[in-house]
Task: structure prediction
Amino acid sequence: MSARLVLLGPPGAGKGTQAARLAERLGVPAISTGDIFRANIKGGTELGRQAQEYSSRGALVPDEITNAMVRDRLAEPDTAEGFLLDGYPRNVAQVDELATILADAGLTLDLAVEITADPEVVAARLLKRAEIEGREDDTADVIRHRLDVYAEQTAPISDVYAAQGLLVRVDGIGEVDEVTARLLSAIGTAAR
Result:
C-alpha cells in the first residue's frame, strides 16, 4: 500500500518518534523539514546556502525556499511508494503548495494525521526533555510561546485538511507503543 501522509501535532506531542516508527512500518521515508534543511546546507546546495543565511541569524526560512526543498525531496526515488512529512506544511499557504507539488506529479495526499495532546502535558514533557538534554533555552515561557505559535500558525492546517475529508486525529498521550498502535489503526481505517 502506498502512503502519502502529513503528520501534524504540537511540539512535544511525539511527532519525531512516531514519524520514524510509522515510516518503518509503512515502508516509506519519514521526511522532516529539519532534515531537509540540514541535508541542503551540508550539501552546499543553492537552496541550502539561502536557508543558512536565514537560520544563521535566527530567522525563519521563507516559504519559497522551504517549498522548493520539499519539492526536490519529494522528487527523489525513495518517495515513489509514499512518504510521511513531519514539519511540513507548517502554514495554510504550504498546504496549497504541497497540493500543487503532488498534483504536478499526478499524486494526491492520502491523509493528514494529527497527534493531539493536552498543552499542559506537552509543556511538562518539553521541560523534562530540556532538563535531560541540557536545553537551557527551553524555559517554561519559551515552551508556552512555542505552543501558542503552533496554535496560531499550524493548527489552522487541521481545519483545512478536515474540510477536505483528509484529517484523522489520534491521542498522543500514553506509552509510545500504544500511540503507534493507535496511529497505525487510524491510518489503516482511513486508508480503506
